[in-house]
Specification:
Distance between the termini: 18 Å
Helix content: 25-40%
Radius of gyration: 15 Å
Structural class: alpha/beta
CATH architecture of one domain: 3-Layer(aba) Sandwich
CATH class of one domain: Alpha Beta
Number of strands: 11
Largest sheet: 7 strands, mixed
Length: 194
C-alpha cells in the first residue's frame, strides 16, 4: 500500500473512456489511495454520466466547484482523463470567463505539491490556461500535437512523460502506465516514517 490515505481527484463528465475510469477506480485503491470523482454538478446533488464506448452509467456526487484552498491541498493528485471529458468540462456560460474546470485545474497547477495528471485528450482542459504547460515537457494524443505546441508545450514522443509535478500520457490505452507513474510519484513524495 504505497499511497495509503492519499486522495486522488479524477475529473468526470460524459463520454469518458470506460476501461480507463474503471482501472483508476481499482488500481489507486489497490495501493491504498482514496479516489474521488469530481465534476461540475450544475446545482444537482448528483449526475449520472455515460461512457463513450459502451454508454456505461457512472454516478458522480462530488464537485470541484467551490472547493476551498485547504480542501484542494488534501489531494495528492488531480487527473484529467481521456475521452471527451475535458472538452465537455471546458464549457463556460460566460465566454469572457474561464470555464470552472479550467479555473480548478489552474489552482491545482499553482500548488507544486499536487501531481497533475493529464492523459490523451485531457490536454484540451489546459487550452484556456496555456501558461500551465508552456515550456513543459509533455505527450498528448497525436490529434492534439498542434494544440500542445500552440500552448507552448514541448512534445516528447514517449507513452508517459514526467515533468516535475506534471505527468502526461499518450492515450487512454496507456492508463495502466500512467496510473503506475502517478503512484510512483505519489510514493516518492509521501512523508517517510522515522
Amino acid at each position: 500500500m504505497r499511497i495509503e490515505g492519499q486522495k486522488i481527484a479524477v475529473l468526470m463528465e460524459s463520454d469518458f473512456y470506460e476501461p480507463e475510469i474503471l482501472y483508476y477506480q481499482r488500481r489507486f485503491a489497490e495501493e491504498g489511495g482514496e479516489v474521488h470523482f469530481l465534476t461540475r454538478l450544475w446545482g444537482n446533488d448528483r449526475i449520472v454520466f455515460r461512457g463513450h464506448e459502451y454508454r456505461m452509467p457512472f454516478e458522480v456526487d462530488e464537485s470541484f466547484e467551490d472547493m476551498g484552498e485547504y480542501d484542494l491541498k488534501e489531494y495528492g493528485a488531480v487527473i484529467v482523463p481521456s475521452g471527451i471529458v475535458a472538452d465537455r468540462l471546458r464549457y463556460t456560460d460566460d465566454v469572457d470567463k474561464l470555464p470552472p474546470a479550467a479555473l480548478f485545474l489552474r489552482r491545482a497547477f499553482a500548488d507544486p505539491a499536487i501531481i497533475k495528471g493529464i492523459i490523451c485528450h485531457g490536454m484540451w482542459l489546459a487550452a484556456p490556461i496555456p501558461s500551465v504547460v508552456r515550456g513543459r515537457r509533455a505527450v498528448v494524443h497525436n490529434n492534439l500535437l498542434g494544440d500542445l505546441r500552440n500552448m507552448g508545450g514541448v512534445y516528447i514522443d514517449e507513452d508517459v512523460v514526467v515533468d516535475d509535478d506534471l505527468v502526461t500520457a499518450r492515450t487512454g490505452n496507456h492508463c495502466h502506465l500512467f496510473a503506475r507513474t502517478i503512484i510512483d510519484q505519489l510514493a516518492l513524495r509521501a512523508p517517510r516514517n522515522a
